[in-house]
Amino acid sequence: MEQYVIKGGNPLVGEVDIAGAKNAALAILSAAIMTDETILIENLPDVRDINVLLEAISEIGAQVERVDKSTVKINGSTIGNLSVDYEFIKKIRASYYLLGALLGKYKHAEVPLPGGCNIGSRPIDQHLKGFRALGADVDICHGAIVAKAENLHGSHIFLDVVSVGATINIMMAASMAAGRTIIENAAREPHVVDVANFLNSMGANIKGAGTDVIRIRGVETLHRTEYSIIPDQIEAGTFMFAAAATGGDITVRNVIPKHLEATTAKLEEIGCEVEEFDDAVRVRAPHTLHRTHVKTLPYPGYPTDMQPQIAVTLALAEGTSIVTESIFENRFKYADELSRMGANIKVEGNSAIIDGVKKLTGARVSAPDLRAGAALVIAGLAAEGITIVDDIVYIQRGYENFEDKLRSLGAEIERVSSEKEIQKFRLRVG
Ligand code: EPZ
Fold this sequence. Notes:
- With 430 residues, this protein is α+β, with helices and mostly antiparallel strands.
- The chain has helices spanning 22-31, 48-59, 86-91, 97-106, 125-133, 164-174, 190-201, 233-246, 261-269, 307-314, 335-339, 370-382, 393-396, 402-408, 419-429; strands at residues 3-7, 13-17, 38-42, 63-68, 71-75, 108-112, 137-141, 144-148, 156-158, 180-184, 205-207, 213-217, 225-228, 249-253, 273-276, 280-284, 293-295, 320-324, 344-348, 351-355, 364-366, 386-390, 412-416.
- A four-stranded mixed β-sheet has the order 21-22-1-23, with helices on both faces. Strands 2-14-16-15 form a four-stranded mixed β-sheet.
- It is globular.
- The two termini are 25 Å apart.
- Residues 23, 26, 94, 120, 122-127, 161, 163-166, 187, 304-305, 327-328, 370-371, 398 line the site of ligand EPZ.
């Protein structure tokens, strides 16, 4: 298993280019199969989840041509299999977007029920509620969701919980359902808007994405388009907190500052200087970080995917901070790992109470999930001494060239896969 080995203590300084948004790309790649014409998608992040989903799309029979690492052509006219293989859903939950896409286009889809995840149980009842409201028969057979419909018709759907996945999945199916669909209590994340814009560029008729009421008029067919994915606000935010935690000065480029507002607000609260440009944001860390309280909320609130990153930064802030996770029930699994680095963090229910300490010290830790793994790397970059992060396959799911980008900012970090390489790193960095 590969690991990161890090020698902490260097302030990270410089500029880093942000890749396309993983969570927008996963939905857009799925929606691309809804036409029989060729779709060109650019600014794809070169990360494991994207590559796995492209395999799943190819496996059901679509033509997938990787033009380069961040550009792909997809043509769904040759799809012959409406059942997605379990191995894909096991690797990435977001394969469930193929449900909405295949149901919308073929009125039939079979996708294995996604399992739980490291951050919580993550049911998909709202997705299924939406498909049923559109007229589909939805059953669970042998661990798979089987959705079928003579025809799909518009409906007025009230989501019981603000769900990014359900909003996007229902929006995809409804875009080819006869008549009008209204989705109430819709998620407002930037990637929901990106998927709606993508579908509209294919000839769909979707209005209101980015608000909590999305109105869709179904169309018979969708057509070719060329589309570029929005920048990944979570990758950007991760580097912004890396600046804060290491006492650095980082400019994230190719971003949409508006998508980062909640993150920027918290960075300023803890003492950072944040400067916004048209497509870049610069973060300069203060000499001493201040405490704050933060609660994760659906967009435009503070993002749950940035919760571990602010927590590890607050571990070094002066004073006591409280981080409350309101979206997922099990997103503090990194706390014990962070404690091994000297942090003073106590999880009580869905909150973590963090008493800032003067310094963290390097230790051997394990990434429990994607964002917590990235946060532990940030902790290692800020800590004194050597940190080894195990199970970095989680991090590679969502961060393109993570160690290269960090090294370009002055980090002492290497991806290794043996004790021998770790020893060589220790000798090199002294
Ligand atoms: C998306 O997950 C993201 N993943 C997650 O990012 C992100 O944390 C999450 O949205 C929230 O922003 C992708 O886009 C691939 P939800 P999703 O449906 O769609 C409950 C990352 O790190 N819920 O908005 O699965 C659910 O349990 C990942 O990139 C239901 O109860 O999240 C959760 O408590 C981690 N029933 C809440 O809603 C449902 O049918 C929000 O989940 C669906 C969701």
